[in-house]
Amino acid sequence: MFTTRRTLLQKLNAGSQVAWADFDQTYRKLILLRGRDRGLREDELDDLIQTVLINIFKQNSIFKYDGTKGRFRDYLKTIIDRRSFDLIRKRKNALESLNDLSDKGIVLSSDDYDNAEKHWDEEWQKHLLEQAIQYISTEVQAQTITIFRLLSQQYYSPEQVADELDINVDAVYVAKHRMLKRIKPVLKQMDS
């Protein structure tokens, strides 16, 4: 079975170097995405990753994950947001930094909040789908995964997939059905 977020967090708290590498590989893209959505500069993103990891690791952290109180994605998002705003506040001249954000088209208004939340949810779903595909990749033929990726991630039509891979359209539908049947329970378990 794939490593659950809870198991990964337990290993992080135990100081496992492998768990740190797994966490970094699994969540780095999402941390960077959220930091950019919150208006961080490129030179602040490495600091964000470090502070998020430290926050999760600290035994006495205020932000301990408790699965009974909410979803991991909300827990992670809260940590990223708070550490992002900490970094913005640390800028030498906060007023100038906020003006710089505005000049770049980044305004932290309620509309931006809604857009950032929507962006986070979309990227989280993509993240889960990719994790699920990787998890079942040893159990499913490579061509089935290719077909599924073309349909679900590149938005090819079944006819386009058939032409691209030089197969029958019926084979595309069969592969999609098999993949969905296998991936749905994994996605459900990952997003619980």
UniProtKB/TrEMBL annotation:
Entry keywords, A to Z: DNA-binding, Sigma factor, Transcription, Transcription regulation
Q: Report the residue ranges that make up the RNA polymerase sigma-70 region domain in this protein.
A: 41-92
What superkingdom heads the lineage?
Answer: Bacteria
Give a single Pfam family match.
Answer: Sigma70_r2
What InterPro entries does UniProt report for this protein, alphabetically?
Answer: RNA_pol_sigma-70-like, RNA_pol_sigma-70_dom, RNA_pol_sigma70_r2, RNA_pol_sigma_r2, RNA_pol_sigma_r3/r4-like, WH-like_DNA-bd_sf
Homology family: Belongs to the sigma-70 factor family. ECF subfamily.
This chain's protein is named Sigma-70 family RNA polymerase sigma factor
